Amino acid sequence: MANDVVLEIDNITKEFPGIVALTDVSLQIKRGEIHGLCGENGAGKSTLMKILSGVYEYGSYRGNVYMEGEEIKFTGESIKQAIAKGIAIVYQELSLVPKLTVGENIFLGREPHNRGIINWDKLYAETDSLLKKYKLEIPFGAQVGNLGIGQQQLVEIARAISEEAKVLILDEPTSALTEEEVGTLFAILKELKANGVTCIYISHKLEEFFKITDTITVLRDGMVIGTLPTTEATVEKIISMMVGRVMKERFPKGNRKPGETIMEVRNLTAYDPNAPGVKIVDDVSFSLRRGEILGVAGLMGSGRTELVTTLFGEGGVNVSGEISVKNIRADIRSARGAMANKISLVPEDRKALGLIVNDSIIKNISLPNLDAFSSFLRINKNEEYKMCQKYADDLQIKTQSINALVTSLSGGNQQKVVIAKWLMSSPEILILDEPTRGIDVGAKYEIYKLMNELAEKGVALIMVSSDLPEVLSMSDRIMVMHERQCAGILDQNEATQEIVMALATGIRK
Amino acid sequence: MLRSIWNIILRNIKTFTMIFALGFIWLLFSILTQFGFVQPENLSNLFRQMTIISFLSIGMVLVIVTGNIDLSVGSVTGFLSVIAAFLQYYVFSSLLSGMLPTADPLLVGAISTVLTIIVVVATGVGIGALQGTMVSYLGIPAFIVTLGGMFIFRGGVLAITQGKTIGPVEESMKAIAQEYTSPLVGWVIAGVAIALIFFGILWRRRQKKAYGFELKPMRFDILKACFFSVLVFSYVLVMNLYQVMGEFKSIQYPVLLMAVVALVFSYLSSNTRFGRYAYAIGGNKEAARLAGINIKKNILQVFILMGVLCAVAGIVLTGRVGYGTTSGGDKYELTAIAGCVIGGTSLMGGEGTILGALVGSLIMTSLDNGMSYMNLGPEWQYIIKGAVLILAVYLDVVSKKKK
Ligand SMILES: Nc1ncnc2c1ncn2[C@@H]1O[C@H](COP(=O)(O)OP(=O)(O)OP(=O)(O)O)[C@@H](O)[C@H]1O
Ligand SMILES: [Mg+2]
């Protein structure tokens, strides 16, 4: 059955300065299967995929890769070669051009042309039929930068599909998608599979593996721990293979005792700064107590991110309504204003809003917190190092040194840097927008524990999340957003997946 | 040991490539000029020549780091330079001699110079504040504001000079750009500098130890301190060999000034919040805003500092020439930007060091000086400088790709 194997990875070892990302990894991917790949943050999943897709050229790693029995050695224009060979990839980090349209992005670099002159009609017609074929409701002429992050992710997937690859690699495609969009994606994957396309699928949402994959491979610390058919796997088994020990529960039980109200929001309304007259937050009212976690659920585009960024002073314009913090009316017009009210925000899009990508871990963590260890003339760098190291340890950021650049971290560990940065600002109100996106189960557990600890200390938390089990398990109350309005606020004990979804989709009022 | 030194070199590959390039250029010129290039006299000139551009590149690093650019620095420097000459020649000389008719003319000159410096620096601050406000608060792109500034202040130069050279300026003004310390003072300065280098490194070790951090082996720090000490020592040694009419000279005043300015700005850029914020803004403006940084204020401050440095450059320029001239500062902005870029500053923002800009300026000035020494025609000088700039950036791009 050897010719059944599309892709054979043979003894791959990949080193970065001072770190071995992959050690003797061998793996066989069978034709037409959906092969799940899981492992903790920094296990080496993305690195392995980047070898297949030509980001890391032949020669920068040891070992061999065979495609349909033939060794592949991508060098020079290695990424193009990989595409030509039929390997397409959706990267973990978005890689679209924000100023270009959906169609331009999908056909970037291979625009249909006639003697060098782009045939725009054909380009958009093909984009349109591609989007329609896979039932993606995205306007083909929209500027990508104006789309939500979930829709951008779908555009990226559409681009990969349009390359008509034999092997399609998806590196955490669902981390930014809603349940509904995930459903769309799975339907696409099933159709591709029926057409004989092989797929490698990476995710930290383990349930997904059971819905879509045929085989699961677990990586830990750059090594293959095992490969097994999905039918023989259980969530517990996978987790214990991933983390090397048995995890009894996914969500730690906190001992939260919500206290007095710290923030009161009345009739908050705000408008889109780029499109005058368009409401992005519509008449939202709620209150927040010390020591509670308020979950914010809703579909992508329901206005959750807009709500929290507006609370932070950096969202909509022409803000009306009233925000009071500790019974004092707070006129928050900027991040600085929010921070003066001891409000912090962990933003959704870590690359665009959370990180200075070319800087070190330590400089990123300390950026909003420099006041704590600086005088007018001096930053106390030793104090800075000590504090940042502490938070890096608390969050188990996997790195050799906090002086390393954030780009040398795996995606999940970059997310931890953003969280560390805002934890350190010792807020009284901490807003987390999709805080566990791209984070492995073990680290998620640590973050939940931290959230509990903060709440127990009296910090009020707002957590926006598309992960329903997470919202349901971690929140004291759940606010559900629907079309930029608050569709309802539920207590934890009355909230179920069905009720939340009904509110989020507007079926129930 | 060797391996770890190699690692340090690899990690700071940019700095070392630059130093290597500088060494290569010097070696080349030495050979081409039968070692005339490295004679004390020429080196003394070379360092003095580099100062004006250095002041400008030091400020330019910060401007570029925040993701902006300042094309007006040449014109502003020229403008401030003619203001200085104008004040000295037309205003203060008559004003002061009227007020202090019996005083020693040298003293009057010195008072005039001090007053001139104050007014010129204040004007520099004003110009920086004006352009900075337009960039940050009015949101006009820096390229446009300073391109406009380039024309306007060149016009200002012509308005003040009326097309004529103004001067001469006071002896004390000239001294700022032309005088030397005595060899003894030179050695004292070298001694103090070396003592400070060692003291600083040991002090930092002690601080780290107090925090319980792991320390690098002592020999690394000693090696580093020795490296810089040797630089200082050999510099003073060579300068002390230079004699004019039988009299030994030593460190040039403007070079001393440059060293102080460079140290201050280097400290500012890496050890203060102001500096950190500048890099963060250039690295990712949105993330910086969400971190609560006052972006507008920071950019305004950067432009004000640029204005101050233009003033310093203008004063040294006036002192060097002894007059205010219509063409003073012409095209300095381009050389300053080139110096920054050769020194590793990224035009995309967020990246660049003061030390790099200094080495970059030294490379540019060395090219100027060496080619003039060889009597190469100006056409070749332009062509070669341009080619070196492109080559330097290309090497940088390649080394980044390798990473
Ligand atoms: N460019 C790089 N330079 C140095 N180290 C790197 C680089 N890229 C990745 N690494 C390291 O290699 C290891 C594997 O990273 P990789 O991105 O493959 O992890 P991952 O399994 O995809 O994790 P995640 O789930 O967080 O995305 C990590 O320890 C990471 O820090
Ligand atoms: Mg990854």
What's the layout of helices and strands?
The complex is a heterodimer of chains A (509) and B (403).
Chain A: E1 5-16, E2 19-30, E3 34-39, H1 45-52, E4 62-67, E5 70-71, H2 78-85, E6 87-90, H3 102-106, E7 113-114, E8 117-118, H4 120-133, H5 149-162, E9 167-171, H6 179-194, E10 198-202, H7 206-212, E11 215-220, E12 223-229, H8 235-243, E13 261-271, E14 279-289, E15 293-298, H9 304-311, E16 317-325, E17 328-329, H10 335-340, E18 343-346, H11 350-354, H12 361-366, E19 374-375, E20 378-379, H13 381-394, H14 411-423, E21 429-433, H15 441-456, E22 460-464, H16 468-474, E23 477-482, E24 485-491, H17 497-504
Parallel strand pairs in A: 3-10, 3-11, 6-9, 9-10, 15-22, 15-23, 18-21, 21-22
Antiparallel strand pairs in A: 1-2, 1-4, 4-5, 7-8, 11-12, 13-14, 13-16, 16-17, 19-20, 23-24
Chain B: H1 2-11, H2 13-32, H3 40-65, H4 73-99, H5 105-136, H6 142-161, H7 171-178, H8 183-210, H9 218-240, E1 243-244, E2 247-248, H10 253-271, H11 273-283, H12 285-290, H13 295-321, H14 332-342, H15 354-373, H16 378-402
Antiparallel strand pairs in B: 1-2
Helix pairs in contact in B: 2-15, 3-10, 3-11, 3-13, 3-14, 3-15, 4-5, 4-6, 4-13, 5-6, 5-13, 7-13, 8-9, 10-11, 11-13, 14-15, 15-16
Provide an overview of this structure.
With 509 residues, chain A is an alpha/beta fold. Chain A folds into 3 domains: 5-243, 3-Layer(aba) Sandwich (Rossmann fold); 249-342 and 428-439 and 458-509, Rossmann fold; 349-426, no CATH class. The model of chain A has no long low-confidence stretch (mean pLDDT 90). Helix content of chain A is 32%, strand content 27%. In chain A, strands 6-9-10-3-11-12 form a 6-stranded mixed sheet, with helices on both faces. Chain B has 403 residues and is mostly helical. Chain B folds into 2 domains: 2-179 and 252-376; 180-251, no CATH class. In chain B, a hairpin with a 2-residue loop joins strand 1 and strand 2. In chain B, helix 2 packs parallel to helix 15 (354-373), helix 4 packs across helix 13 (295-321) and helix 15 runs antiparallel to helix 16. Chain B is globular. The chains are: A alpha/beta (509), B mainly alpha (403). Chain A binds chain B through residues 312, 314, 334-336, 338-339, 345, 347, 352-359, 363, 367-368, 370-371, 374, 376-379, 381-383, 385-386, 421, and chain B through 207-208, 210-211, 213, 271-273, 276, 279-280, 283-284, 286-294, 350-351. Magnesium ion binds at residues 45-46, 92, 171, 410-411 of chain A. The site of adenosine-5'-triphosphate has 20 residues of chain A, from strand 2, helix 1 and helix 14.
